[in-house]
Backbone:
């Protein structure tokens, strides 16, 4: 009875807790793999390429220090490439 109370019952709880933690770790790993897969699929798709191009063109237009050209005209000059994608 004393052995059961002090050794076996806590050991069962520890084993059960370890199994739950292993299951949660497995779910986290599956979730991370699925997220990485979806991210790679999005980046390869036309939407991902187009949005990356738009963000890059907008950033370059805002970063440019040329005074005589407006930001909107620079972006409009590059929209043909976006339409191509």
Residues:
């Amino acid at each position: 009875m004393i052995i059961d109370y002090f050794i076996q019952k806590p050991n069962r709880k520890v084993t059960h807790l370890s199994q739950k933690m292993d299951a949660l770790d497995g779910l986290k790993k599956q979730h991370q793999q699925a997220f990485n897969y979806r991210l790679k699929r999005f980046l390869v798709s036309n939407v991902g390429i187009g949005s990356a191009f738009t963000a890059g063109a907008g950033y370059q237009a805002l970063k440019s220090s040329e005074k005589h050209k407006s930001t909107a005209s620079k972006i409009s000059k590059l929209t043909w490439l976006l339409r191509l994608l």
Q: What stands out?
A: The mean pLDDT is 76. Helices lie at 2-44, 46-63, 71-84.
